[in-house]
User: Fold these one by one.
Assistant:
Number 1:
Amino acid sequence: MDNPCQQNDKENVSPDLDTKRKDYLEWRDYFMSVAFLSAQRSKDPSTQVGACIVNDENKIVGIGYNGMPNHCSDDDLPWARKGNWLDTKYPYVCHAEMNAIMNKNCSSVSGCTIYVALFPCNECAKLIIQSGIKKVIYMSDKHKENDCMIASRKLLDLAHVEYTQHIPKHRKIVIDFDNINARHK
Ligand SMILES: O=c1ccn([C@H]2C[C@H](O)[C@@H](COP(=O)(O)O)O2)c(=O)[nH]1
Ligand SMILES: [Zn+2]
C-alpha cells in the first residue's frame, strides 16, 4: 500500500531536493562573509571593517568591527578623517581586529586564523602577533603602499604570521529577507 507521506511519484520528486547542494558556502567564503556582516555594525562613515577569528576546528571564537571604545559614546567622539588630529576619529576608534581579539569567547586565540575585510595596519599586526594568531586572510589591500602597511608586513613576516588574500568562490552573497519571508509563507 502506498504511504501517503512518502513522495515516491517520480514526477513529483525534484532532483534539487534529493541531491546534496553544490553551491553551499565553503568555509573561507563563510568566515569572510561573517567578517563583512560584522562590518555592517560599524558607524564609521567612510570605512567599515569587520574581523572574524576562527580556530582549527572551524569554530568562530571572536568577531569585531571598528568602533569607539566601550562606554565612550560614538555621538560624542568625532568621525572626521581630516583636521586637527584630536578632532578626527583616529586617536579614538578601536580597530576591528582589536575588537575581535578582545571579544574572544575562549581563553586563547593562539594558533587561530583571522579573517579581515582590510589588510591589518601595523598596530593590529602587533596585536595579532602578541595574541598568537598564526594566519591572516584579508580581502582588500587598498592601502598597500602606506607606511603602516609596509611596517605591518615587516612585523608579520618576522613573526612568521602567514597572510593570504581571499579570492571568493561566490562572487555575490545576498541575504534577502523579503525573499526568505516569501518562501516561508
Ligand atoms: O587595521 C585596521 C585599519 C583600520 N581600521 C579602521 C579604523 C578606521 O575606523 C577605519 C579607517 O578609516 P579611513 O577613513 O579609511 O582612514 O578603519 C581597522 O578597523 N583595522
Ligand atoms: Zn588596525
Number 2:
Amino acid sequence: MAARESPDPPLEITYKNLISGTTQNYRRPELPVVEECELPLIDLKELDLGDSEKNLACKKLIAEASREWGFFQVINHGIPSHVLEIMRAEQVKLFEKPFEEKKTYKDLNFSAGSYRWGTPSATNVNQLSWSEAFHVPLSDILASGPNIHNNTLSSTMEQFAARVSELAKKLAGILAEEIGKKTGFFEETCLPSSCYIRLNRYPVCPVVVQHPQMLGIMPHTDSDFVTVLQQDGIGGLQLVKDGNWIAVKPNPHALIINIGDLFQAWSNDVYKSVEHRVVANAEKERFSAAYFYCPSKDTVIESDVYKRFSFGEFKKQVEDDVQTFGHKIGLSRFLVPPGGSSSSSLSGGL
Ligand SMILES: O=C(O)CCC(=O)C(=O)O
Ligand SMILES: [Fe+2]
C-alpha cells in the first residue's frame, strides 16, 4: 500500500522531535500499576426476573460499584449482539479508510473537528495520545434525517445510540433512586440529540519500545453523566483505584459503564468520576466505542459540593483549560470554597 493511502495518522513523523528528545522529556511520577483485574460484573437480568429481592440486590450492586469504583461492567444488558457487532464492523470500515480521507470525511454530516488524532497541543512525549477518534455529537446524525446519504455508518450509529441510551437511562435512573433523587431528571434533560458517540482507534505503536509508558489516551475523566463503553478483546484500559492504576481485563460479553463528572457533582460526590487512560500497544491495534450520556447544554447541575453550573459552562471551561494548560481540570474548578454557598453564580454564568 502506498504511504499516502495508509489508514494511520502520521503520529511518528509529526511527533518525531518529541519522541526522540530525551532531556526535555521529564516524566511525572507515575502511580504504580497493579495487575490486570476484573471490574465488578453485574448481571442486569436480575432486574427483570420479577423477583423484588433480586431486583433490589442488583440495584445495590450498581450503586456500590459506582461509589467504590466509578466503573463496572454489565452483562445481559439488553442490547442485541447484532447491534454491537454491526457498530464495530462499521467502525473498523471507517478507520480503514486512508488517513487523508478521514481528515476530510464528507460522506457524513459530522461537524468540523469530529475527526481527531494525536495531541495537537503536546509539548512533550508524556502528553501524546497514540490514537485517532471520531467524536460525534448525535445531533449531527439525527439532524441529517433518516439515512440521508444512504450511509450505513450513520444509520448504524443511530441504531446503536437508540439502544445504548436506553441502557444509560435505566442505569442513571437506578443510581438516582439509590440516592433518593428524582429518576425523571434524565428523561427531561438527556435528549437523544444531546449525547455523543466517540469511536476510538489505537493504532499499533512502534514507539513503545523507546517509550514503554506511551499512552493511547491521556488520563481523564468523562464530562457526562454515564459512559457506556464497548471495547474489543485487546485490553489497555486502566483506571485509578485506591491510588493505583488498575488494568481492566476485557470481557467479550460485557459493556463497561463508568460514572462521569456530572453524576459525581449531582450526587454530591457519592458516585465517583474516576480517572482512566489507555496504554499504547506495540503489536495490536485496538478499537473502542464510547457513548456519552449527556444533558442539553442549558441543563443546570445543582450540587452541595460544587457551584451550580450548566453543562454548557462546564464544557466551555474544560475546552478553555485544555487550550490554556494542555489538559482538563474538571470538577475541582467548580468546588464551593470553604464556607461558601453552592448557589453562588459563576462569573459570567447563570
Ligand atoms: O478506549 C477506551 O477503553 C477508553 C476510551 C475513553 O476513555 C474515552 O473515549 O473517553
Ligand atoms: Fe473516557
